[in-house]
Amino acid sequence: MQQTDIIVIGAGLTGLTCAHHLAKKNRNFIVVETQNHVGGVINTVKEDGFVYETGPNTGVISHPEVADLFEDLKDKMTYEVADESAKKRYVLKKGKWVALPSGLVGGVTTPLFTWFDKFRLLGEPFRKPGTNPEETLAEMVKRRMGKSFLNYAVDPFVMGVYAGDPAQLVTKYALPKLYNLEQNYGSFIGGSVKKMREPKDPEMKKATKKIFSVKGGLSNFMEALQTSIGKERILLGLQNITVEKNDDGYLLKATNAGGDPVEIQAKQVVSTAGAYALPELFPFLPAQQVDKIKNLHYTRVVEVALGFKQWKGRPLDAFGALIPFCEKRDILGIMFMSTLFENRAPKEGALVTIFIGGVRRQELCDLDDNAIRELVAREAKDLLELDDFNPDLFKIMRHSHAIPQYRADSKERFEAIEQIEAQYSGLILAGNLRNGIGMADRIKQGKTIAEML
Question: What is the reported pLDDT for 202?
Fold first, then answer.
């Protein structure tokens, strides 16, 4: 039996970031992972001149902790920010692409919104803040800005981030920065202006809000973290992992790839596993509390990487294309990966990623590969203005637990986590079941937890 101070369960971005900072503190720890590679759902594939991701495609430098981590790893990898064209994002309206406006003037002149809502926009800074902390995103946006802003700005954004439904997501939990903008400043527009004028400390200036990846793909990011942590501290390919509570802390039991038993005793355990995995992972936890956590809904998403060695479609001069649900299309959106980052496709070619399914179109995730190809061919020919559909790369990735949905049940989930952590000293339940779903959120949480230990 091995002895250590801390066990980190999961070698995804959260677990690796936590372990990286534990290593910087010279703490005694072991990371355990069921898969045979680090990174969790983050994985890069290089094939026939294309470099594509099979999980998350990009992140945003929305917290200083992201910039700090890149600085720590600068000798092991090179991060890259998206091309300037990424500032433009298209939204589909009546079959045509319209650039999403970024300011008040653009919001008034764009064809995306009704004139009635444009006039209402002028009064947005003067509307009273909401009083319902459980208000959904759809309710908040309609109240402050109008239905057309919901349909053609917020809804496609939510489809792109959560693959979700703004009528189900609670703003306070799903988009806390937006919620706090109204609560702390009284309005979205006025609050944004005031925040821009507020002096920022040097640390917060690191949060540039720029879109990032890593040269060669995000797998290089995960490998850099693995090297920083030390491969000898990471146990891959463990199966049947369970944790028992005992007088000395926690005993983890598992089997390795050869079928041999593995036992690790530790004083503290950090779990970054999905909410659905907690009952089997921690059988000693009270069912009444665990049920409130495991009920977290994860939507399914199908991701398709499309590569063309010779691009003959419309110009890919943006971050990508967002598709409002009211447009009744069969895809959630398209990312123009070869526009965002260099060397993702042959010089005259293109690499795009198409997303299908989400909360409101789960049935599309049940389609077989042939039906998915037919769907993608139909949508890509129309939306990307292709005369024919003969991609040089066509890869389908299916995600059964793609994105957690921060709905009205989030409050009781967060409370249950707090109760469990208070009841079982040394146990921390982390991962995307709380504190946000983006890569930056995972990095921030990983560092925060390491500082607590």
Answer: 81
